[in-house]
Amino acid sequence: MISKTARYLITMLLSLYALVVVYPLFWMIATSLKDSWSIFAEPWRLFGSVHLVNYTNAWLKGALGWKFWNSLIIDTLSLVFILLLSAMVAYVLARFRFPGNRFLYYLFLLGMALPVFLGIVPLFILMKNLGLLDTRIGLATVYCAYSLSFTIFVLHGFFRTLPAELAEAAVMDGCSPFGVFWKVMLPLARPGLVTAGIFVFIGLWNEYPLALVLLTSETSQTLPVGIANLTMTQKYQADWGALFAGLTIAVIPTVLLYSVFQKQIQAGLTAGAIKG
């Protein structure tokens, strides 16, 4: 049993950690509502005059509007195919025994050890030859390829823990192998799908090198590339409020996404820790 003193110290440490993590977020949002003079004159002041024009400048003049929707479309399209393909591969590798099973599993895991920078030049040439350079579908295809390893690794553990009796009962009721996967196993792996999906989406939302190289025109660029361009231009225009507004626009979707699915993520991580 933990004593009251230990609980008090743990609570204090966790509260301090929460303050260290959350305060920069609030400071960034507060700074995005200031004018350039207030940012330097009153840097630590959280509340003051509100300048919503910073968001208008970032969204329109900074061209983050199109880049935001480009990121949302590309990342959502990628996530759908990543989860679908990864679930099928992870299910087969976890539930069926065949020659080469372990080899394929570790081959997929090897993909997590390869840095993205090693494939940028070959990918650029390949996308150009296929006519997929500077297209949303081209970048989404590359995102799928690079995210399969992690997602298969996460879902493989969930499918291994599902009871085999459910699959056997479904087969006895006349369910086909695909029906067992689609109607029985996939719904049971929902915590794993949500957990993997959130982490994959956050990673894709913040991805920069591939988007910078494979999307050459400004109208097709994603939000991280737009934030980098905005950082360079706003330094010379001295519109720091628009820069912080752009950073807030980039951060808020992931924060909201995690807040909405917080319970599912915790349930998925706890299930994986207990059953794995």
| Named CATH architecture | Orthogonal Bundle
What CATH calls the topology is MetI-like fold
Low-confidence stretches: none
How many strand units?
Answer: 0
The backbone outline, from C-alpha atoms, is: globular
SSE pattern, N- to C-terminal: HHHHHHHHHHHHHH
**Total number of domains:** 1
The total of helices stands at 14
Identify the CATH class: Mainly Alpha
**What assembly state would you assign to the polypeptide chains in this entry?**
single chain
Give the overall pLDDT as a whole number: 86
Question: What would you report as the Rg, rounded to the nearest angstrom?
Answer: 23 Å
Helix/strand structural class:
mainly alpha
Q: What is the rounded distance between the termini?
A: 26 Å
Estimated helix fraction: over 70%
Percentage beta strand: under 5%
CATH superfamily: MetI-like
Largest sheet: none
Structure write-up:
The chain is built from 14 helices and no strands. The relative contact order is 0.14. The chain has 276 residues and is mainly α. The chain has helices at 4-31, 36-41, 53-61, 64-95, 101-110, 120-130, 136-161, 164-172, 177-188, 190-205, 209-214, 223-237, 240-260, 262-275. The chain starts with a helix and ends with a helix. The protein is globular and about 70 Å long. It has a single domain (58-275), classed as MetI-like fold, CATH 1.10.3720.
